[in-house]
Amino acid sequence: MTDQEYNAKIEEQWRYIEELKLLVSERSTLLGRPLVSSVVTFGCQMNARDSEKLRGILDAAGFRDTENEDEADLVIYNTCTVRDNADQHVYGRLGHLNAVRKKRPSMIIGLCGCMMQEDHVVAKIKKSYPFVNLMFGTHNLYAFPELLVRTLSEDKRVIDIRQETKIFPESLPVRRKHFFKSGVNIMYGCNNFCSYCIVPYVRGREISRAPEEILDEVRRLVADGCVEIMLLGQNVNSYGKTLPEKTSFAELLREVCKIEGLQRLRFMTSHPKDLSDELIEVMAENPIICPHMHLPVQSGSDEILKKMNRHYDRAKYLDTVRKLREAIPDISFTTDIIVGFPGETEEDFEDTLSLIREVGFDSAFTFIYSKRKGTPAAEMENQVPEEVVKRRFKRLLDEVKVTAEERCARFTGRIMDVLIEEENREPGLVTGRIGHNIVVHLPGDASMIGKIIPVHLKECKGFYYFGEPVRE
Ligand code: SAH
Ligand code: SF4
Ligand code: F3S
Q1: CA 278-280-286 angle, 5° bins
Q2: Is any ligand 2 atom within 6 A of the Cβ of residue 192?
């Protein structure tokens, strides 16, 4: 596709947004009130960013936004299918929406995101949830205006699922959740095919965005008030490999760090197999890159790591951790761990426990292995019995808790910069994060949101701190 053809496709969507405006205003005139929409996000940061694009388009079309989907005229579920419980969650909520919709038949229900890229899911929705009006997948998010026009003007269900991505919604409207921080996609898809994981099948092959495009987007966001940017990709460390002019993630970071006004830079997710010495150098040289590394390890057993197709072993992981600690002394480590992968023995599991102690993670997302249709692991023998997995999972949680509490306390008594993110549920308190990604609660009010202020970290409460703003 030439640039011209690409731009024509995007312009077409802008015209559909104009059409949407008319349709929405006609309907609201009839109803005598504005139309209300609700976008509900399941899954990862990448889905959260996609939802901001959906909301941007809905805003531009004239919808008002609500968090209460029960009162919405249009509900969009942006789905995740990484584990079975994510799927079950969506089915459960659809059941509930059906009851609401029976009282208000004009309600429109749309599904998009990763679940839609699985044939068996689409078949199930068609059969068991016939009231769903719109379904589209991860490869045609950019066509949301067009698909919504069709849904509002045609009297039948609209389904459009594609197998690859050529066009991205980057130049369509976006509504950010936070005015002071934003995610920025630097790549889409994944080429790693970890044997348990569905993501490469539902998100497609890895595609990196051109560096200039990313830099432009960050500049625009900073000019619009963002102080913190998080660069997003399933494996940011392999950024640039698919570009005509080869570049690396470390080089991209170097360029982003030069953008004036940007105060904090984060990224997610780093795959241990591709983490370069150059990246460690860039992190050490640039204080605006937060001293936090989310580095999913999945397991501490070499045997299991091999079966997972992760392309590193325990020793390599520990070596990377050591190098990062040497270069950035106080750095925080967080991780993802799967328990109960097929063939996991008690010994393998104990290797994971000992690795947690050895690294000293600041926190860990822990998951029970979930069989995903079509992945190699789903076909493996020796699936671990549920009872065994449950017992291991509990031991895993205990280990993570003990280690994390020990680690978190290391800043007690220090004065550190906190980006204030929101008001606390507790009146008179606000909540923010230090660069190391640890949460801090402190006295304050909404006027502080989006500001970075020095805070005395008085008391560590396990995973978070209570602090006191330092008066200058
Ligand atoms: N791209 C990231 C992870 C994306 S998915 C990476 O490679 O690190 C987020 C996490 O979900 C994974 O790190 C893994 O721990 C977990 N996960 C993925 N598939 C899973 C499955 N089938 N069962 C349980 N957990 C899974
Ligand atoms: Fe899944 Fe592995 Fe890709 Fe992460 S790197 S999204 S775990 S296949
Ligand atoms: Fe889930 Fe899709 Fe993200 S499967 S974890 S929402 S890429």
Answers
A1: 100
A2: yes
Ligand 2: which residue has its CA nearest to atom 4? 234
Q: Are 283 and 289 in contact (CB under 8 A)?
A: yes
CA nearest neighbour of 57 among 5, 21, 110: 21
Q: How large is the greatest C-alpha to C-alpha distance in the chain, in angstroms?
A: 67
Nearest CA to ligand 1 atom 15: 336
Atom of ligand 3 nearest to the CA of 86: 1
Q: The pTM is what?
A: 0.96
Nearest to 411 by CA among 450, 351, 464: 464
Provide the residue-wise pLDDT of the chain in tens; the chain has 472 residues. 888 999 999 999 999 999 999 999 999 999 999 999 999 999 999 999 999 999 999 999 999 999 999 999 999 999 999 999 999 999 999 999 999 999 999 999 999 999 999 999 999 999 999 999 999 999 999 999 999 999 999 989 999 999 988 888 888 999 999 999 999 999 999 999 999 999 999 999 999 999 999 999 999 999 999 999 999 999 999 999 989 998 999 999 999 999 999 999 999 999 999 999 999 999 999 999 999 999 999 999 999 999 999 999 999 999 999 999 999 999 999 999 999 999 999 999 999 999 999 999 999 999 999 999 999 999 999 999 999 999 999 999 999 999 999 999 999 999 999 999 999 999 999 999 999 999 999 999 999 999 999 999 999 998 999 999 997 6
Tell me, using a 6 A CB cutoff, whether residue 457 lines ligand 2.
Answer: no
CA-nearest residue, atom 1 of ligand 3: 80
Residues with CB under 6 A from ligand 3: 43-44, 46-47, 80-82, 114, 199, 202-203
From the CA of 298, give the closest atom in ligand 1: 15
In the block, which residue shows the tokens 């959740």?
177
Tell how far the Cα of 149 is from the centroid of ligand 3, in angstroms: 26
199 lines ligand 2 (CB under 6 A): yes
Q: Which amino acid does the sequence have at 214?
A: I
